[in-house]
Amino acid sequence: MRVPVIAGNWKMYKTAGEAAAFAKAFLPLVAGVREVEIVLAPPFPSIAAVADLVRRSGVFVASQNVHFADEGAYTGEVSPRMVKDAGASHCIIGHSERRQYFAETDDSANRKVRAALAAGLTPIFCLGETLAERKAGKTFDVVERQIRGGLKDIPGPDGPKVVVAYEPVWAIGTGVTATPEQAQEVHAFLRGLLKERFGSAAAAVRILYGGSVKPDNIATLMAKEDIDGALVGGASLAADSFARIVKFK
Ligand code: PGA
After folding, report:
1. Using a 6 Å cutoff on CB, does residue 39 contact ligand 1?
2. Distances (CA, A) of 217 to 211, 213, 220
3. pLDDT tens sequence across 100-138
């Protein structure tokens, strides 16, 4: 049984005050939800404030990125240890916006996934093809390269600790969601690759879908066998819409 993960990626939205106001409005709406791992990913400066507010609520906090070193002369970067100390338990790694605008590669994402695991954080490792890649029939080649690269040298026992997020780039922030069938096809393919890599433990890996997930499309996505949750951008910014996604059943 895989516990579903519903994670809200706030991207570069919300000050600490706005993030705290969200948490206060959101918690009563999801009180009593026990069968979903709920994760909020605010910008770095709001992690501590949100983590303080959600403590003992069962809601988890993620960073949207981490560096791969513990500490060092890396101006502008934040280490897994610092993120954890601020109260986060998860971290998003390799998001397509990091790949597109900040030169993230499979290799740098892999170093971050390994560093996050070493620090005791749950990595939410993102991958997905662009529209041009899909149109060229390269979807499976691209996601295979990304997952092999991103999870390189992860020791077997750590496999199930990684959460994978399949986010087709053409579906992110566009209002165009992959159909449940399109998503399931890729998720099943990824599960097969995870099986090669981690054996039977692959059955425990949560594979999330991301890309224009909304309250009205979450249930049909979640009905698919290999879709184990969602990484939600725009629709996670308002407490009521994110709560409706969390309570998709
Ligand atoms: P979206 O973003 O839900 O706004 O499409 C998803 C993401 O980027 O994780």
Report:
1. no
2. 11, 6, 6
3. 999 999 999 999 999 999 999 999 999 999 999 999 999
